[in-house]
Amino acid sequence: MKNIINKGSALAFILMLACSVSCSDSYLEEKPMDKFSPENLLTSKAGFETVIVSLHSYARDEANLSTNDEPMNQGTDVGYSGVPDGRFFNDYSIILPEHAAPKNMWDWAYTKMLKNANLIISRADNPDIAWTEEEKNEILAEAKFFRGYTYNALINLFGGVPIVDREESSPRFDYKRASRKEVLEFIQSDLEFASTYLPIVSSDASKDGRIFRAAANHLLSEIYISLGLETGDQNFFDKSISAASKVINGDCGKYELVSKRFGDTSRSGDYYSDLFWTNQQNRASGNLEGIWVMQYDYLTPGAGDKKNIDLRLWGPSLDFVTFPDGKKMLVCDSLGRMSGGIVRPTNHANYEIWSDPNDVRHSVHNFKSRFWMNNPDSEYFGMEVVLTKKEDGKMYITLPDGSVTNSVVDTTRNFYPYFRKIEGLMPWGNMEGRTMNDRYKMRLSETYLLRAEAYLHKGDRVNAAADINVVRKRAQASPVDPADVNIDYVLDERMRELIIEEPRRRTLVRLHKMYERTMKYNYRVKNNMQPYHELWPIPQKAIDANTAIKIEQNPGYPGAAE
């Protein structure tokens, strides 16, 4: 059912200019012979669809740019890394223009996403292509959606960046940074086109994972908020409300919040946990909440080694917990092998925001905070893991009679509560620690929170609270009073609802809250983060390659203007 997204994944790596050269009596003429060269491939709707599939594949790569890194959440108010050194955004002083995270993201954007989106957009004007105007506009709309999505990621990591709006046929060395406002306006144009020409959501299960009109309006709602904050023009907040309302009110097709159990109801859980279990993210499962869902197919031809790695990134290494008899806990089917706090939730995320005991998002089915010794060879088999802090500040295993042992447990890497969104089926074996769960990029609950944010920026706390309370009511949490709604409350609600799913760094940057909230809630960075770290450095390789015009480095980093 998801083959349309995955069959072409392998093609993404050979969609490059490939040609052979033949000779005539008077000159050499390049004639592209490879069937996957743009000249031969982009002559029909099917050819353009192949490049669209490559965009889906590259978009899925964003979550896996590094198998042991999650820079959208590390070093924020949501999480830090449990490693004892400064890696993984525990130390912002080492985030320099040569750092891997900025380089990986920059290359992903410019050499993959934007390159292929611009290839489609530039070549679609060929009058010899046999397609209808509707087919052409749908292809253009999906390409422009991906281009807008990519630039939105870039501006919320680097600030203003060079705008590349067409296929480049020869090397260029004169790119210059556009302002944040200019990039936002460019994204606005792309997404307004996409919101007009993308199709209404389909009930056809084979189209799960495709981009529909609701996704463009959802992202437009965010872009309009950014434009309103950037320009001070309040009209953008009204546009944001309108774009979100088109999704919420059904103008883009039927979407609704899940409020009752569905899918595999034989497993222990509740309706919220059902949202995240394997094979239950798409409309084919009866879930009408997902707006854009990344597809991960097990054993699908062309899918390659793409797997959902959230379990390894966010989970503790419970199998490193050692009891007084020397026996360790075991990796088991329900937990899998985790990588030890690559993203360890902050205390704010795990505890401080959960004041309502009835909130199902923090129930035992969605938040795991109690663990038992599961190794049958241990004399402590079946005993709950209880810890006590001694005077040295370390945590020690405590026996049922209250006696504290000498067995130390690392609570930043090996033992801490975690959100169970990361759990799922592991067909490769539980030691692999990766699931086949499809991954939400956009859900309807976030659309409500975006609209609430737009209302709040207008000063309308009543309607902001009303939208937040739709999300809270579904979670069986008590409603928020309009007087208590501010941007920090919205960010906390986004954390409750969207943790792990949300690229938190980009959310905080677009709201100018990255430094403030990270310093407040992330103890690992208090001594090394500076206000300029809100933005990443422009990769040095991009600056060095642009020899005709100097690309200005972001303030605070080596090479920046004084």
Automatic annotation (TrEMBL):
Pfam families in UniProt: SusD-like_3 (PF14322), SusD_RagB (PF07980)
Matching entries from PROSITE patterns are given as: PROKAR_LIPOPROTEIN (PS51257)
Q: Subcellular localization, per the record? A: Cell outer membrane
Keyword vocabulary terms for this entry: Cell outer membrane, Membrane, Signal
Q: Which residues form the signal peptide?
A: 1-24
What family classification does the UniProt entry report for this protein? Belongs to the SusD family.
Q: What is this protein called?
A: RagB/SusD family nutrient uptake outer membrane protein
Please report the organism this UniProt entry assigns to the protein: Parabacteroides hominis
